[in-house]
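Worked example 2:
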Amino acid sequence: MTSPSVDSGFDIRLQTFQRLMQHQIRDVLLVSSLYDLYLFEEDGRLYDLIRNEYQGLSLSHAPEIMRVSSAWEALQLAREKSFDLIITTLHVEDMSSISLAKKIREAGLKVPVVLLNYDNQEYLELSTYHDTSVFDGIFIWQGDFRIIIAIIKHL
């Protein structure tokens, strides 16, 4: 028979795991220009790379990623379909990423919005001249697709 402290420690870990599993990210909306998408996809294998990474971590369901280049299209989709995460790049076709995040908040959508930036200089300019509190996180893309997995784990 195990001691009560061991059992209660296991129970706490199990409860924590169950709470985390309730917040799985299954559907991601990526809002980016076509050029940004080209940078993400490297050689056209972004989705395969993410699925392989998930399998390597023994996770059963990799998130599905839907991409749009228009902020208005993103808003419409976000109202129609329940996304678990919206990732936007700084360069969106028809409005700034900050305006997009604000409109998502104003629409009452309870979805995390993350900004994916390309370099520290853009980040410094953005954070100096704009209120970035509308984002649930800002990450710097440095050519590694695993940043998307890191964002998902962070949330």
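The chain has a mean pLDDT of 79. Residues 52 and 124 are 34 Å apart (CA to CA).
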